[in-house]
Amino acid sequence: MDTDTESPGKDSRAGTDLTGDDRSGHSATDEGVESAAAEPAIAISGRQAVVGIYLVAVVLAAGFGFALALTIDAGNVAAFGPITFQISPLNLAVYGAVSVGVGLGAFVGLAALVASRHS
């Protein structure tokens, strides 16, 4: 049996943090809090976001290709379809950028085509 009784003026939620309950004496509209929320967010379109992600992926592929070529023995040969070439940091960087650019570009282009037909 619980023998705890509450006083009429006492808050029984002393340890609970409630929304809007600021025990520090500052309100949510104090200077500093309101000004941070009033800053406009950067607005970009979906197309800009996709193009940005596409470019980042192509640049990363080029960077990884360059780094990979530094670890591979010279004299190895790589192929991009019917085209073969000696592996060097520059060649493998171009290979990575082109292969990801073509593959991802085809996928994004196909998705854009399907989306434009169903919108």
Pick out its properties.
about 120 residues; mainly alpha; two-stranded antiparallel ribbon; 3 helices; Cox cluster protein; DUF7520; membrane
Describe this structure as you would to a colleague:
It contains 3 helices and 2 strands, in the order ααββα. The protein is elongated. With 119 residues, the chain is mainly alpha-helical. Strands 1-2 form a two-stranded antiparallel ribbon. The chain is 50% helix and 7% strand. InterPro entries: DUF7520 (IPR055942). Pfam families: DUF7520. The chain crosses the membrane at residues 51-72, 92-115.
Would you spell out the secondary-structure blueprint of this structure?
Layout: H1 33-37, H2 46-71, E1 77-80, E2 83-86, H3 89-117
Antiparallel strand pairs: 1-2
Helix pairs in contact: 2-3
Write a concise synopsis of the structure shown.
With 119 residues, the chain is mainly α.
**Helix/strand order, N-terminal first:** HHEEH
Largest sheet: 2 strands, antiparallel
Mean pLDDT: 78
Q: Please give the share of residues in helix.
A: 40-55%
